[in-house]
Amino acid sequence: MPLLAGGALELPLGIVAGEGLRRRMAVLAGGLVFVLSLAAVAGARSFAVLLSAFTAFYPASGAFVSLTQATLMDARPDRQAQVMARWDLAGSAGAVAGPLLLTAVLAAGGGWRVAYLVLAGLAAVAWVGTCLRDPAGGAVPAERESPAGHRVREAAAALRDWSTVRWLCLLMVADLLVDVLTGFLALYLVDVAHLRPAVAALAIAVRLGSALAGDAALVFVLDRAAEATVLRASAVAAALAYPGFLLAPGLPAKLAILAALSAATAAWYPLLQTRLYGRLPGRSSVAVTLSSAAGMAGGLGPLAVGMMAEWFGLPRALAVLTVVPVVILAGSAARWPGRPARRAAVRRE
Question: What is the four-CA torsion angle of 166, 82, 31, 146, rounded to 10 degrees?
Answer without folding.
Answer: -60
